[in-house]
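Researcher: Re-running this chain for the archive, since the previous output was lost when a drive failed. Same request as before.
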Amino acid sequence: MKVGMIASHYPHAAHREEFIARVHRVREVMLRTPGCLSADCWLSADAVISMVQWESEEAAAASMAAVEAAELDVAYDEREARPREIVQVVAG
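Model: Regenerated structure tokens:
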């Protein structure tokens, strides 16, 4: 069953471009993992939104493990104006 994740991030304006670059680095790692069907970065006035789709929960877990192994900067910290909103979804 296909699964997905929609994550809304709210970086402070001074960190927006840096945050977009961070999301793109994560995207590149995820797209290289088997079973990752798509990974995109979208922008709104105040948010950087990442949307990822996998063929299964196992593929999603593999992508997350690959990101962790790559030691990418994915920490939530003072560069963000408010907490992230992460929604896990499944294909209907």
